[in-house]
Design goal:
Blueprint lengths: L1 E3 L4 H33 L5 H7 L8 H14 L13 H25 L4 H8 L2 H13 L5 H19 L11 H31 L6 H25 L2 H11 L4 H28 L2 H22 L6 H27 L5 E3 L14
Helix pairs in contact: 1-11, 1-12, 2-4, 2-9, 3-9, 4-8, 4-9, 5-7, 5-12, 6-7, 6-8, 6-12, 7-13, 8-11, 8-12, 9-11, 11-12, 12-13
Length: about 350
């Protein structure tokens, strides 16, 4: 049968959410690595504690969840049930699995960041785009164009250039074994995060309940709570809770600034995670990976300026290749969108489920 094309309110709202999540992701992507590195270079050395900080700020998500609940209370049909949480058991279990993987990913990343300058580690993490693209193809059947393939290739090569010529960035007195282990840990973190994004997208696609942005925030809350619990176990085994107070007193910038750093770190990383899965919800895991990488390039420049980290020719080549890949992706995306002509009508066959909706993004 034929139905008139619906109004563009849903499309406009989704685009607005995409922009908002890009801003949230930007804040977290800039602030998270920089503040974490600030913690390490001024005397912080608790790996499990820094991993715990990446997700322990999750209670802040309760605020927007509560706001969404109050909005529904004012606008929803009085006869309909309005719950604070809509997360059902299948999605809840999926969020637990994602949380365990996230906790492990946090540890790998923090271990590597503690042994590398943030500028170098950021560009090595750029290799996660290759993992994201590969897993997106396998898990969610991501369609690639010549432009998106070129983007993934250039971004990966850019990270490879840096990885092969990063020995001059080695921190003073860093043993060979620790340096290599840190390098491997960062690559492992890249692979895991590259797996997490498509897995989140697959979770959205396979869910048996309607995915709203409120539900996305609930999934994020469970993921972070589980990841925090995972890192809490590591902290207990490593006696981090007993040593954090002493570390704060010995922190080079002072005890007050120590706690300011750790609180800011927790908030920034929460922005990173929420923005990342929000972009997956509004668009795709591949776009989320592209944006994360582009923002890492800015992090690289900021780190060189504010932390006085070295800026060799290899970093410049890596940055140029990565930027070229980023522009290639969006040029191809714009070119593809121009080829699509908007239909005046939507054909719906009787074989489709009554609630089937085609995503507009």
């Amino acid at each position: 049968m034929e139905v008139k094309e619906p109004k563009h309110d849903g499309t406009t709202m989704r685009k607005a959410l995409l922009v908002i999540n890009c801003i949230i992701l930007s804040i977290g992507n800039y602030g998270g690595p920089l503040i974490m590195r600030l913690y390490f270079i001024h005397g912080g050395n608790r790996i499990w504690f820094s991993s715990w900080l990446e997700t322990s700020g999750c209670p802040v998500i309760l605020l927007p969840i509560a706001c969404a609940y109050m909005h529904r209370s004012r606008t929803a049909d009085p006869t309909s049930e309005n719950k604070l949480f809509y997360l059902e058991r299948p999605l809840f279990l999926a969020a637990i699995v994602l949380g365990i993987i996230t906790g492990l990913d946090n540890y790998f990343y923090c271990y590597g960041l503690s042994r590398f300058p943030v500028s170098t580690s950021s560009l090595i993490v750029a290799s996660q785009l290759a993992f994201t693209a590969g897993f997106a193809f396998l898990l969610v059947k991501q369609k690639f164009t010549a432009y998106s393939i070129n983007a993934v290739f250039l971004l990966t090569i850019g990270a490879g250039v840096l990885a092969l010529h990063s020995s001059s960035d080695r921190p003073a007195n860093e043993p060979n074994r620790e340096y290599i282990t840190g390098f491997v840990m960062i690559l492992a973190a890249s692979a895991l995060y590259g797996f997490i994004l498509p897995l989140v997208e697959l979770t959205y696609k396979k869910a048996k309940q309607e995915i709203s942005y409120s539900l996305v925030m609930e999934i994020q809350l469970v993921m972070c709570l589980v990841a925090t619990a995972f890192c809490t176990v590591g902290m207990l085994i490593n006696n981090d809770f007993k040593l954090v107070g002493r570390e704060a007193r010995e922190f080079e910038l002072g005890e007050t600034k120590y706690y300011l750093v750790v609180i800011s770190s927790a908030i920034m990383w929460q922005c990173f995670f929420l923005g990342g899965i929000g972009v997956v919800f509004c668009a795709s895991s591949l776009l989320s990976g592209i944006l994360v990488l582009f923002l890492l390039l800015v992090t690289e420049l900021v780190a060189v300026i504010f932390f006085n980290e070295t800026s060799q020719a290899e970093k410049g080549v890596s940055l140029a290749l990565s930027l070229w890949g980023f522009l290639s992706y969006f040029y191809g995306d714009i070119k593809q969108s121009k080829k699509k002509k908007p239909d005046l009508k939507i054909e719906i066959t009787s074989s489709l489920p009554p609630n089937t909706v085609e995503s507009s993004v």
